Amino acid sequence: MTEKDLINLDFTRVDHTKEEWGGDTDWYCYEYEVGDICLLTQANDEIKNDEWYVEIFDYQNIRFTSRTELEIFITLLVNNYREDDSI
Questions:
Q1: Which of 9, 15, 17 is nearest to 39 (CA)?
Q2: How far apart are CA 61 and CA 58, in angstroms?
Q3: Quick one: which of 52, 58, 55 has its CA closest to 7?
Q4: Closest CA to 57 of 35, 41, 80
């Protein structure tokens, strides 16, 4: 999956400064939120050959590398999200 795919899927770029994280360089990642679920990419300085992936925050054992599969997952989340817990 490319950075352009993430942008086309409406992911939001989140910029981080080296001062904020105590690193050597500034970096950014992408995120997409549906309710309490946050989908996150790795940092841009970890990218090789424009191959991005997306994980569910706090569930790094689930990883999307295919834009098509990610798009299906997002569609399912968005179409089934309820604002409240009432049935």
A1: 9
A2: 9
A3: 52
A4: 41
CA gyration radius, the chain = 14
Place of tokens 């970890």: 46
pLDDT per residue as tens digits for the range 16-43: 988 887 778 899 999 999 999 999 999 9
CA 63 to CA 39: how far, in whole Å? 10
- Inside any domain, residue 86: no
Joined together, the tokens standing for residue 11 give 């992911």
Residue with tokens 């360089």, as numbered in its chain: 25
Total tally of structural domains belonging to the chain: 1
Q: Are 42 and 52 contacting, i.e. CB atoms less than 8 angstroms apart? A: yes
Q: Do the domain assignments include residue 87?
A: no
Residue 83: how many other CB atoms lie within 10 Å: 6
Tokens 């770029």 sit at which residue? 13
